[in-house]
User: Fold these one by one.
Assistant:
Number 1:
Amino acid sequence: MTLPEYIASRFDMLAFQAVQHASMVAQCLLVAAAVGVGLGILVHRDERATALATGATSVLFTIPSLAMLGLLIAPLGLGVAPSVTAIVLYALLPVLRNTIVGLNGVDPALVEAARGIGMSRSRVLLRVQLPLAWPVILTGLRVAAQLAMGIGAIAAFVSGPGLGDQIFSGLARIGAANALNATLVGTLGIVLMALLFDALFVLIGKLTTSRGIRSHA
Amino acid sequence: MPETTTAHPQTLAALAAEDGGTAGVPIELIGVSKRFGSADPVVDDLTMTVPAGEIVVLLGPSGCGKTTTMRMINRLIEPTSGRILIGGLDARAQQPDQLRRHIGYVIQQAGLFPHMTVAGNIAQVPLMLGWDRRRIARRVDELLELVGLDPAEYRDRYPRRLSGGQQQRVGVARALAADPPVLLMDEPFGALDPITRENLQEELLRLQGELSKTIVFVTHDVDEALRLGDRIAILGAGSRIVQFGTPEEILAEPADPSVEQFVGGGSSMKLLKLTRVRDVALDDAVRARPGDDVADLRRRLHEAARDWAVVLDEEERPLRWVGREDLAGGSGPVGVLPSAAGSRIDTVISGGSTLQEAVEALLNADREVVPVVGRHGRYVGAVTLATVRQAIQEVRQRRQPARHVRADGAGTAVPAASGGVPDTAALAGAAEAGAADEADAR
């Protein structure tokens, strides 16, 4: 069976797995964005808190993903729970780090000007700091999305949802009929989705970044 | 607004709303100190009053605490001790964010928000005050006009597409958005090139002429201070006031050698810049008409003991100079003298010119005299080097007693009966008399 034949023969299942994969990644990103940006806002003004937060997430980052998934089986069992947990944890680092870098990169004179004309702290954050840090935060989210795609594939190791299943089952039966096809479909599918996500982020960036600070306006 | 008839406004916001916010209110700093940690105080027991509607410049070397002093007024920095009254209201009794919305704030390089358009930047304070869209849009255009930017062209631009000078104009517009009675300006023109800086200084003076805000202006540029300040506070370490007075007072009578050194050795040159031609006693040349008889003019010059006369046309506009040598041996009307073309007047100055400009004109003219013209180019008098010298000396002498009087005024806490006042007055009188004698001797 050729690759196109393989895809045609089980299109429904592959499509389902692809959608599952994308939706898992998207949901994990939302959680990582909320937690990462929120944490970044909380810690960015305090050097020690910043060091602690980035240090902790960096340590998480050094744990091999396979090991992390394995370790999560004990408390969370198999399936969606350990997969989602692992993806969120990995996606957290780029989001958190870029939020901190972005917020600290805002010219202090602008923050002072904002305070000086009578903006409250939260208003300065919403009206000045976050909009100005947004391109950097968005870049963090993009990196996190690529990461989540990859980790999502490995999540099949703990019976997680998504295209990883094709890769793992293919690799397990290598040499058998359709083993290569399965591995290829899983891999190419994930690459394709990663590209789509990236394109989506470029679009979001275009739509949500002020013309005044866009690099190519 | 249900509380329109309450007796006295409790906040600057209410005060600003009450009289449209337009005119300035006085700012009083009373024994204000600021200490960061346990180090020496940055501002040490500072007491000063910024009169309503005046530009007061805080001038001093970097690190003397002038910016800290300014920031305590809008509570970006909280004083460690002391009181600050704005329009008679204690700044500490008001919510800081509310307070700041009614104190314009301009910083170096404008501090415009790069992700907002010009209109968006200016609209920030009105938005916080809850104005409706139409009112904000109207106000934005009005302010752009005020600072000399065409609303249609600049309204929707982003700051990065503006020059430094234009950005600072928008910065000033943003500060004025809610028509605050008070404006704080922290080295606003420091980062601009000299020409743009002078333009904006000129512009600020024009605006102030229209608006009469109370402006506290921080700078370390002596020339800027002399140019803009109604009063200048020269600050030393710990924001100690070394001298507080008008530019003329500071130039003519520096409080101590450090001030003299700080405002520069060229004090006379600076006085020249500050004094307008209309404020000095002008020389008057012998006037002549083209139709006057040469012999008659010669006689008049002799009587007035002058060497030259100015020839005026029917509209009283100066045409040219004639000297005794031009008249010698001639006859008939002045207008047909053969040497007439030689001393044509092409440089005139007006009453609004500074003495510096007058001196420049004198140096460039081929005579040692430059005519001064009034409305419609009419001759009103002349300036010579002697006029200038005389004027500078007069400014110096006038300021001496004036400063004593002012110093007494500032120290009203001392009872008049202390005996100090008569002494000082006597001293001032003596100085005045002495000065008069000196002038007579010349």
Number 2:
Amino acid sequence: MHHTLRLGYSRSMSTTGIITNAIRTKLQSALQTKHLEVINESHMHNVPKNAETHFKVVVVSDKFDGLALIKRHRLVNDILKDELQNGVHALSIVAKTPEQWDSSDKVVESSPNCRGGFGK
Amino acid sequence: MNSIIRRSFYPIYNNTYKLTCRLLADAKINEKIDKIVKDNKVVVFMKGVPDAPRCGFSNAVVQIMRMHAVPYESHDVLADENLRQGIKDYSNWPTIPQVFINGEFVGGCDIMLQMHQSGELVEELKKVGIKSALLTADEAKKEENK
């Protein structure tokens, strides 16, 4: 298992919180990820500092092989069910097989800017 | 004596009453959503309205729909707390926005974006008799180049 250290990854490390860690651990063990990024995007939203409410995950796993996109997303949602029911309310998912990931440009765009729907 | 009986039974009665009410409400919202998604070819459950989305993810979906010039019905979950929870239960999907085509849950923002990029969305729309504006534009271009 190798994890590439990229900007998104290190950024989330600097504000590593309990939920960020839980998300990482759960996805790692359930999907045997070949590459994993858990990015806390909460700072882009109207929430308290160091909040853990908005996330983007980049998940690369063999377990996605042969699964349609919606099924991959359902799988990830299911693994993170507890988090989604307890405070995490935005989860953007990039789910790829190792082959798809290797042949992609490996650049993950950040999520769209908040428009103030939450907390206002 | 009567009051003792009433007092000891009241909590059970009250809880049952509350639970029944909630189950009835659940069934009602489920029914309502079922009707909405089956009566319209394309439905978007979002935060805010298409002219003023109140979340970046909802806005992204609105922009995609606009690009393809898709006629759709939108529902603002921020205006109805019952709907906000109800739609998540209905589709077993934890986040908003949610897109339905022909009564079937298609996905949220990430999936719509990918379907848009891969061309899959054009095909899905075609299946329900909606011709994407991107397709029309494409054809016009080809016609010009002839």
